[in-house]
């Protein structure tokens, strides 16, 4: 019984960590869709770009990559500098995509299908630009903090795992407060309901959209940094599969719902970890997606999504 309890708690902790990554990416999908009704399929690759930005920022401050700064800066200090810089630079990538790819189509009134295809192309451009500029060889993320194992008798947990879980929780709480308690959040919710009437009320739509991309992309950058610290091997296609899975998690939770994206990410993480704990790892995606398909068959709008009427 003790062995079973220990294994169960350990798997729950692993699921919380893995679900945190899905939730951080799913929240970005949720923000953009909630405001623009756009599924930003390039978001998983923005997550990948954030991991690479974190790598270069960390190696720069450690003095390993360029030698511009004397080596020996403490890892915790490098991490404290890397987090805001990674989020800011990744947000700049997201805003650039919005200005270059999405805004021209939006202003020309292009059909939503063309915008989705453009998002897919943007993701491929990010992947292959990374491949062309940095090469196909994998890069190892440097150790920024000493990983400590906290043993509680029948289970153990690392400080890095706790940091990832707390970061996802704080991001969720922060987003909820921004969307529900601030003027810009009120404008985001208003645009999601009627984007064409908002300019008549004097609200700058483009500014709200840019802020939405800043939020979503910076969260993806934070997720990329935390993922790189947890699994320190970077490659150009690392964001593709996890991005698609996070999108599915957002749909299962209820696309457009912050609470749904957060819960959906953890739900997918729990399902995957528990499947691997019981069945061979080759069954992970098969059983996980089957369970999620059953949930959507029972509740097509997702766990926290709401059916919306459209005027014709």
TrEMBL record:
<protein>
    <submittedName>
        <fullName>ABC-type transporter, integral membrane subunit</fullName>
    </submittedName>
</protein>
<dbReference type="GO" id="GO:0015188">
    <property type="term" value="F:L-isoleucine transmembrane transporter activity"/>
</dbReference>
<dbReference type="GO" id="GO:0042941">
    <property type="term" value="P:D-alanine transmembrane transport"/>
</dbReference>
<feature type="transmembrane region" description="Helical">
    <location>
        <begin position="20"/>
        <end position="39"/>
    </location>
</feature>
<keyword id="KW-0813">Transport</keyword>
<feature type="transmembrane region" description="Helical">
    <location>
        <begin position="286"/>
        <end position="307"/>
    </location>
</feature>
<dbReference type="GO" id="GO:0005304">
    <property type="term" value="F:L-valine transmembrane transporter activity"/>
</dbReference>
<dbReference type="GO" id="GO:1903806">
    <property type="term" value="P:L-isoleucine import across plasma membrane"/>
</dbReference>
<keyword id="KW-1133">Transmembrane helix</keyword>
<dbReference type="InterPro" id="IPR052157">
    <property type="entry name" value="BCAA_transport_permease"/>
</dbReference>
<keyword id="KW-0472">Membrane</keyword>
<keyword id="KW-0997">Cell inner membrane</keyword>
<feature type="transmembrane region" description="Helical">
    <location>
        <begin position="46"/>
        <end position="69"/>
    </location>
</feature>
<dbReference type="GO" id="GO:0015190">
    <property type="term" value="F:L-leucine transmembrane transporter activity"/>
</dbReference>
<feature type="transmembrane region" description="Helical">
    <location>
        <begin position="237"/>
        <end position="255"/>
    </location>
</feature>
<feature type="transmembrane region" description="Helical">
    <location>
        <begin position="75"/>
        <end position="101"/>
    </location>
</feature>
<dbReference type="InterPro" id="IPR001851">
    <property type="entry name" value="ABC_transp_permease"/>
</dbReference>
<feature type="transmembrane region" description="Helical">
    <location>
        <begin position="113"/>
        <end position="134"/>
    </location>
</feature>
<dbReference type="GO" id="GO:0005886">
    <property type="term" value="C:plasma membrane"/>
</dbReference>
<feature type="transmembrane region" description="Helical">
    <location>
        <begin position="154"/>
        <end position="179"/>
    </location>
</feature>
<comment type="similarity">
    <text>Belongs to the binding-protein-dependent transport system permease family. LivHM subfamily.</text>
</comment>
<dbReference type="GO" id="GO:0015192">
    <property type="term" value="F:L-phenylalanine transmembrane transporter activity"/>
</dbReference>
<dbReference type="GO" id="GO:0015808">
    <property type="term" value="P:L-alanine transport"/>
</dbReference>
<feature type="transmembrane region" description="Helical">
    <location>
        <begin position="262"/>
        <end position="280"/>
    </location>
</feature>
<keyword id="KW-1003">Cell membrane</keyword>
<keyword id="KW-0812">Transmembrane</keyword>
<keyword id="KW-0029">Amino-acid transport</keyword>
<feature type="transmembrane region" description="Helical">
    <location>
        <begin position="208"/>
        <end position="231"/>
    </location>
</feature>
<dbReference type="Pfam" id="PF02653">
    <property type="entry name" value="BPD_transp_2"/>
</dbReference>
């Amino acid at each position: 019984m003790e062995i079973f309890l220990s294994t169960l708690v350990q798997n729950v902790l692993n699921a919380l960590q893995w679900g945190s990554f899905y939730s951080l990416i799913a929240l970005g999908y949720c923000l953009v869709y909630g405001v623009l009704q756009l599924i930003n399929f390039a978001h998983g690759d923005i997550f990948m770009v954030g991991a690479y930005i974190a790598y270069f920022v960390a190696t720069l401050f450690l003095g390993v990559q360029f030698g511009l700064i004397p080596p020996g800066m403490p890892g915790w200090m490098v991490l404290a500098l890397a987090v805001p810089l990674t989020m800011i630079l990744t947000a700049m990538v997201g805003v650039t995509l919005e200005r270059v790819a999405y805004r021209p189509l939006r202003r020309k009134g292009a059909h939503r299908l063309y915008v989705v295809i453009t998002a897919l192309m943007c993701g491929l451009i990010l992947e292959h630009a990374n491949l062309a500029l940095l090469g196909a060889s994998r890069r190892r993320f440097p150790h920024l903090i000493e990983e400590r194992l906290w043993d509680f008798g029948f289970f153990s947990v690392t400080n890095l795992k706790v940091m990832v879980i707390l970061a996802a929780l704080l991001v969720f709480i922060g987003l909820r407060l921004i969307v529900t308690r601030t003027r810009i959040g009120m404008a985001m919710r208003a645009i999601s309901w009627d984007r064409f009437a908002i300019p008549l009320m004097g609200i700058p739509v483009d500014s709200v959209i840019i802020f939405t991309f800043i939020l979503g992309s910076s969260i993806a950058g934070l997720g990329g940094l935390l993922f790189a610290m947890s699994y320190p091997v970077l490659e150009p296609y690392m964001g593709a599969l996890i991005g698609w899975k996070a999108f599915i998690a957002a749909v299962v939770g209820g696309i457009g719902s912050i609470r749904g994206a957060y819960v959906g990410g953890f739900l997918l993480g729990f399902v995957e970890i528990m499947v691997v704990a019981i069945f061979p790892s080759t069954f992970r995606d098969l059983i996980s997606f089957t369970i999620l398909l059953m949930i959507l068959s029972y509740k097509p709008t997702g766990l926290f999504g709401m059916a919306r009427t459209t005027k014709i």
